[in-house]
Specification:
Helix content is 24%, strand content 42%. By secondary structure, the protein is an alpha+beta fold. The strands form two sheets. Strands 1-8-3-5-6 form a five-stranded antiparallel beta sheet, covered by helices on one side. It has a three-stranded antiparallel beta sheet with strand order 2-7-4, with helices on both faces. The mean pLDDT is 96.
């Protein structure tokens, strides 16, 4: 019986504008080799940044991503008027709200692997949420663990 294996893979995401983005295909394309042959396992994705987030959510209707971004902007106020509502504001009015949103949503997701494929639900996809106005290159560390065929 084959044993469990572990491997880590640094991934790069394309630069995305502020908002919620479906990245399932980006992830599966970059991990096609490591996922192949995993009979049963787990993919852990860890975003190595503090002003963006990863989530699992609706993969079909893009309005869900727009509504999510709009809702988070309402929940976490941005100090565009410069009223000084945040102490940490040296990097711009979007920076501290980005840190708060990142803490609310989270920097990682774990997804089961079944027969070399991500075992996502019918309407689930992997989301990347960019909370800063400028485009940034973001890095994700993927850990693939599982029993190989």
């Amino acid at each position: 019986m084959p044993g469990a294996t572990y491997s880590q893979h640094p991934l790069s995401l394309p630069s995305y504008p502020r908002g919620s983005h479906l990245i399932t295909s980006d992830i599966t394309t970059q991990l096609s080799g490591p996922l192949k042959g995993v009979k049963a396992g787990l993919l852990h994705l860890f975003l190595q940044h503090t002003s963006c987030a990863l989530s699992l959510n609706e993969n079909y209707d893009s309005d869900v991503r727009k509504d999510m971004s709009d809702s988070l902007d309402k929940i976490v106020e941005e100090d565009k008027a410069g009223k000084g509502i945040y102490r940490h504001d040296a990097e711009g009015s979007d920076d501290m709200p980005a840190h708060i949103k990142s803490s609310l949503i989270g920097a990682s997701v774990s997804i089961p692997i079944t027969n070399g494929k991500l075992a996502l639900g019918t309407w689930q996809g992997i989301w990347f949420l960019e909370f800063r106005d400028g485009k940034h290159r973001r890095k994700v560390l993927a850990t693939v663990q599982g029993e190989r065929e």
